[in-house]
Amino acid sequence: MALLEVRDLSVTFRRKGTPPFTAVDGVSFDVEPGQTVGLVGESGSGKSVTALAIMGLLPKRGAEVGGSVSFEDTDLLTLPDKQMRDRRGRDLGMVFQDPLSSLNPVIPIGLQITEVLERHRGMSRKEASAEATDLLGRVGIPDPKRRLTEYPHQLSGGMRQRALIAIALACRPRLLIADEPTTALDVTIQAQILALLSELVRDTGTALIMITHDLGVVAGLCDEVNVMYGGRVVERAERHDLFSQARHPYTHGLLQSIPRLDAPRGEKLMPIKGSVADNIPWEHACAFAPRCPNALDHCREVAPELVPDNGGMLRCHNPVGPVSATQGVGA
Ligand code: ADP
Ligand code: MG
């Protein structure tokens, strides 16, 4: 059994005066200890809402969550609030995109780490202080002893993100969710943070869910990638398969829109035309059909199911590449 089993997860937002909106729709995936699983898709595809649902951080009112999220033998979705808070302190950690909004601006970094260590790992002040120094050093912050006394605004963006990772790691979580952890950072720092995360996964056996809009980011990090569109997984593949033989036209679009160092100079990036605002609801058709270069009439009439394909999973009537015998389309 996997460490985390997400099954048929759905999130519908209900607000007075607006029609209900399903942001996550039947999402399922597993994460094993030491494994890194990517959730990839454009902004608005439901990645963060998936993460927040797993962490039990969606507002109780207005967000209806369905399906199950098993962590070992416990369904996190039915856990009482207090137990879920304990879990978040102990087993589950999360790193958000914007470290400044996740750090407390009026408390020194060191105290924010030692608090966690005292509360969740029962350390004395002295033990916690030594461990905090060690943690800051491990995430690559130079002169950690001095940095402990500094406030978040005294650190650079990259340092703040490292400090946030240190706080998330202070509890020794068995599952870490990183939601666009490098999006706000410049490219060099991005690479350092990603290297740090992959090192931590390797050294500690922590399971990692890596959320990003950038397929380039998952290239070096994820064992398995789930591509999301309109709240559903449209393609799942092992990292290497995804880059060498992506089948969904949307995945192809994402691949063509990442800058590649090995591409000939001057070659244009190809953004996917249209935006997620062009989605059709999945009940009526393939949500991606209005933007899809491969769309057939059939795609605008019947929503495709997620089915096994080529060693992975695919939700598409008319994929790129050879169509297998079981995948006839009504065209
Ligand atoms: P992303 O893939 O960029 O992380 P999100 O998961 O944040 O996307 O959002 C998915 C969709 O759900 C978006 O259309 C967003 O507007 C909507 N959404 C997110 N949070 C809420 C909320 N609290 N209430 C209503 N709609 C929301
Ligand atoms: Mg997001």
Automatic annotation (TrEMBL):
GO terms for cellular component: plasma membrane. It holds the Pfam family oligo_HPY. Residues 6-255 form the ABC transporter domain. CDD domains: ABC_NikE_OppD_transporters. It comes from the Bacteria. Its main location: membrane. Keywords: ATP-binding, Cell membrane, Membrane, Nucleotide-binding, Transport. The keyword Iron does not apply. SMART domains: AAA. It is found in: Cell membrane. The keyword Nucleotide-binding applies. NCBIfam families: oligo_HPY (TIGR01727). Belongs to the ABC transporter superfamily. This is ABC transporter ATP-binding protein.
